[in-house]
Amino acid sequence: MPTSLSVPTSHSASTNGVRPRRYLTCEPTHFDVRYAINPWMREDTRVDRALARAQWETLIRAYREHGHTVETVDPTEGLPDMVFAANAALVLGGRVFGSRFHAPQRRPESVAYGNWFKAAGFDVTEAEAVCEGEGDLVPAGPFILAGTGFRTTTAAHHEVQEFFGLPTISLHLVDPRFYHLDTALFVLDDRNIAYFPDAFSPESRAALERLYPDAVIATLEDALAFGLNSVSDGRHVFVAPQAEGLIGRLADHGYVPVPVDLSEFHKAGGGIKCCTQEIHA
Ligand code: ARG
To answer: Ligand 1 within 6 A of 168 CB?
Structure first.
């Protein structure tokens, strides 16, 4: 196995990109489950909107308490999934690669987010192929990890590489419960990731093993608890409290888990990361 392919890892979590982050979010004012576009969603589900708001506010407070900046896009009535800000774009180096949603129900979200980015002074380029932003595009130090299989297309991966000039590594998702890359994998810091191997094709799994021989490996239970839909600032990991096994393993690796419960959002197939768009400097 060519070791030169792997991302160099260190034994400490303390120096690999720990920094204050800028997050874009959307208040869950209109959050609901009104259509079913992933296996978690059921049209007869009732959302407790007051609980959803309280959970969401806890997440925002946790980010701010840890020194991160949180901004919000105005929610649009009639767009119940707009709270999942991660899907709207990939923002790197001040450049916005805007999404083209797979589901027609979500397509108008691009307009609302695009307007926010333009008002905030960003140039926005829209994807030509189906592309769901940070849901499937995960900046990982020197490259971008890119999911495909259910939403974002490989054509979009190519567009992303041409747009940002960063090597973009396509990973094939195979389990519909983990339909976005950010439900199966998250970046811990500039050098390491956590992921659930069975969410990937055998070949993509092999690629991840080569790149990240020291990755934190999650179980099916962790993944079903939305444990991989986590946000890390390089040290603190904002993670679903239900992912108990993963929380223990993160702590063993030197990270500091910060449990935040977004159980109401799981009904729509989303969790912490889905609600968080990172504006990468
Ligand atoms: N209901 C939304 C959808 O199916 C959930 C999006 C979750 N977002 C994410 N980044 N995984 O599109």
So the answer is: no
Q: What is the distance in A from the centroid of ligand 1 to the CA of 36?
A: 11
Q: How confident is the model at residue 15 (pLDDT cuts 50, 70, 90)?
A: low
Give the CATH superfamily of 22-280: L-arginine/glycine Amidinotransferase; Chain A (3.75.10.10)
Are 171 and 148 in contact by the 8 Å Cβ rule? The answer is yes
**Cβ-contact 279, 23 below 8 angstroms:** yes
Cβ–ligand 1 distance for 84 under 6 Å, the answer yes
Residue 10 has pLDDT above 70, yes or no: no
Per-domain residue ranges of the chain: 22-280
Which residues participate in catalysis according to the annotation?
Answer: 180, 274
Give the pLDDT confidence of 154-209 residue by residue, as tens digits. Answer: 999 999 999 999 999 999 999 999 999 999 999 999 999 999 999 999 999 999 99
